[in-house]
Amino acid sequence: MRPFIFSADSHIREPNSLFVDGLPASLKRHAVRAVKDGDTMITRTEDKVIFKLRLNLNPDFGGQQRLGIHNLEGRMVDMEKDGIDAEIVFPSLGLWLYCVSDPEAELASCEIYNDWNSSYLSGHLDRFVRCAVLPVQNLLNTQAELKRVAAMGFTAAMLPSVTPTGIAKYNDPSWDPVFHLAGELGIVFVLHTGTGAETVIAERGPGAAVINYSLQMSDGISSVMYLVAGGVLDRNPKAKVAVIECGASWLPALAERMDEVYVAHDIFVRPKLSMMPSQIISRQVLASFQHDRACIFARGVTGTHSFMFASDYPHAEGTFPHTRSVLEHLFDGIDITEQEKLDILGGTAIRLFRLDNPAAAARLVAA
Ligand code: MN
């Protein structure tokens, strides 16, 4: 039987006017929007330019070669072509909601996105896991929206992978009520790379393209380090965090590094944790990867359950349209059981995000 393949990272493109149309007149100026200027697509909020994309260099972002960017039926055609059975779906414009600094506009934008996402995907919840976007300018708003989307049946919700300027960092106890609530509600926190950062372009000189994308790994490293060392995850053991598109091989390395210093600098360590950092990571942190096979070699440190395959459709750095051949060679040269393969390819993500697809079960168990 063919393994059930779940992508732990994919994106839809909301209508460009979703936030402009949805926000009330008093908040419209804050709307995150994409405006075409000649051959450039400019994403902005208020007077702030967030992101510029040259369309002629990025034909796929215009939708010509990826059928599913704006279109759910086309998406399912591409999934079939690529061998993806189901996926969790993240936003495109909504990735930039953490650039909205007005708390009221941020909350309203998140509500608009979450309502749209839920209705857009509602007919196909056996193939798509919905992911909410949570506001963070006011952590009471975070909790209110968390409760609202949990009542709508969401099982995953985004927090920024980089805490925006002025927001408590992830080692701050003010996050405790948020992580406690998510654990109680069974909502997994998704930290997608690049979110919350002022810019994803740190370098424009030689090597910039490789440097900028590779550097985005550090979002995940930093957030997990703060959440574990500061004790937020330790004090809220039911909370789970999925770090998306940062790669995954650093997770075992980080776990061992943190254990090392936790013991070696014992006299300076505050707060004390109830278990070793690596054990907290193993219990509560997962990471998605595309081509980053080193995590599979190193899986013994945290356990195989920490790693989830992802295609990052429809983005150029993802595996579409070559996912079938990527998967064919994913485990080459690695000593691994058939059950572990099925878990990495889909089982772990399906259990984590609680995909509503009973038919998948038979394809998640090795013969
Ligand atoms: Mn992605």
Structure description:
The strands form three sheets. Strands 7-8-9-10-11-12 form a six-stranded parallel sheet. It has a three-stranded parallel sheet with strand order 1-5-6. 46% of the residues are buried. It starts with 5 loop residues before the first strand and ends in a 14-residue tail after the last helix. By secondary structure, it is of the alpha/beta class. The model has no long low-confidence stretch (mean pLDDT 94). The protein is globular and about 55 Å long. The protein has helices at residues 18-22, 72-82, 103-121, 139-151, 176-185, 208-215, 217-229, 232-235, 250-264, 277-284, 294-297, 323-328, 338-353; strands at residues 6-11, 33-37, 40-45, 48-54, 86-90, 128-130, 132-133, 156-160, 188-192, 241-244, 285-289, 307-309. It binds manganese (II) ion (MN). Manganese (II) ion is lined by residues 9, 11, 90, 192, 245, 312, 315.
Topology overview:
Elements: E1 6-11, H1 18-22, E2 33-37, E3 40-45, E4 48-54, H2 72-82, E5 86-90, H3 103-121, E6 128-130, E7 132-133, H4 139-151, E8 156-160, H5 176-185, E9 188-192, H6 208-215, H7 217-229, H8 232-235, E10 241-244, H9 250-264, H10 277-284, E11 285-289, H11 294-297, E12 307-309, H12 323-328, H13 338-353
Helix pairs in contact: 3-4, 4-5, 7-9, 9-10
Residues 9, 11, 90, 192, 245, 312, 315 line the site of manganese (II) ion.
What's a quick, concise take on this entry?
With 367 residues, the chain is α/β, with parallel strands linked by helices. It has 13 helices and 12 strands.
Overall spatial form: globular
First-residue to last-residue Cα separation: 9 Å
What is the CA-atom radius of gyration, in angstroms?
20 Å
N-to-C SSE string, H for helix and E for strand: EHEEEHEHEEHEHEHHHEHHEHEHH
* Secondary structure category: alpha/beta
Number of strands: 12
Bound molecules: manganese (II) ion
Q: Low-confidence segments, ≥5 residues, pLDDT <50?
A: none
Strand line-up across the major sheet: 7-8-9-10-11-12
**Overall pLDDT score:** 94
Strand content: 15-25%
Helix content: 25-40%
Number of helices: 13
Biggest beta sheet summary: 6 strands, parallel
